[in-house]
Specification:
By secondary structure, the chain is an alpha+beta fold. The chain has one domain. The protein is built from 7 helices and 11 strands. Bound molecules: fe (ii) ion.
Length: 296
């Protein structure tokens, strides 16, 4: 399987025909990265002032925006400047939504918007611990925000003004990774879920699915031999391009690059064309039991 599937379309509100939508859907759910080589998120002349790491507050690695609440975090900017940065990030969030809805109308009924992030800091050499080191191959799983089985779909645009690419590595298919690491992962302890929620560590009950996804994320990042020797591709997403993937499924590592916008969506498994390919279904099949409920 090729790691990238190229999709034509130079606008976030491009109209895709039936054949394009079917090809994109098949590729996305199979674990390919959809690559839009002509789709740039254009900044206005005024917004180019935000192309500086000085916009970030230095404590968090990203500037993040909650499109539902309209709240921007992680920036030192205040007043009018802050409002204009927020407007830029919100415009990207809206563009990403229009793109996803245009390509995947079947996801629209239950499509939930997660955070938008703006990453003005260089990705290389940023990690503080191996678990936070996104330059190691991993699948996405959030320790504090349980998904309960919903998919993580992310749209990325490289807005680097100096023409620098965003360098990624892409690894093996999800099932190959899961088969490699599952034997070493312990099942959740009874009562652990309740305790995590009661102590405020998680914002909801961590399902067994979240337990295994987080353990898989950590086990992949911890295994140096795997990181170096597993079959993998290096890809560079040039400045002025956009790409999207189910990052809970695609093994990926961000090696270098600066100035990126990213929008997270949650897609319910029931809306997939092939639910059997979802990480939830693969893990349930390999473990021989249901994982999505918040039991215990
Ligand atoms: Fe990631």
């Amino acid at each position: 399987m090729e790691p990238l599937e190229s999709i034509d379309g130079g606008r976030f509100d491009a109209v895709f025909d039936e054949a394009q939508r079917a090809r994109a859907l098949r590729a996305l759910e199979a674990g390919q990265v959809l690559y839009f080589s002509h789709l740039a998120f254009a900044l206005t002349e005024d917004e180019r002032r935000f192309l500086s790491p000085g916009c970030a507050d230095g404590r968090s690695k990203n500037i993040s925006y909650d499109p539902q609440a309209g709240i921007l975090k992680g920036t030192v900017l205040t007043g009018d400047e802050r409002a204009r940065l927020q407007a830029m990030v919100a415009r990207f969030a809206q563009g990403a939504r229009v793109l996803v809805e245009g390509l995947f109308p079947r996801y629209t009924p239950h499509l939930a918007m997660g955070r938008t992030s703006y990453r003005p800091i260089e990705a290389k050499g940023r990690a503080s611990s191996y678990r936070k080191d996104d330059s190691r191959l991993h699948v996405d799983a959030f320790p504090s925000r349980p998904s309960g089985g919903r998919r993580i779909l992310r749209v990325f645009s490289n807005v680097n003004p100096e023409g620098r690419g965003r360098e990624w590595r892409l690894g093996e298919p999800f099932e190959v990774c899961a088969r490699r690491f599952l034997p070493g992962i312990r099942p959740p302890l009874p009562g652990q879920r309740w305790l995590l929620k009661a102590c405020g560590i998680t914002s909801g009950y961590r399902s067994d699915y979240d337990h295994y996804m987080l353990a898989l994320h950590n086990a992949m990042k911890a295994d140096e031999h795997f990181q170096r020797h597993c079959p993998q591709y290096e890809v560079t997403f040039p400045a002025g391009t956009t790409w999207m993937a189910f990052t809970d499924q695609v093994s990926h590592a961000a090696m270098a690059g600066q100035y990126l916008l990213e929008q997270t969506f949650h897609v319910s498994v029931q809306d997939l064309a092939r639910p059997e390919g979802a990480p939830l279904s693969v893990l349930e099949r390999l473990l021989g039991r249901p994982l999505a409920g918040a039991r215990g």
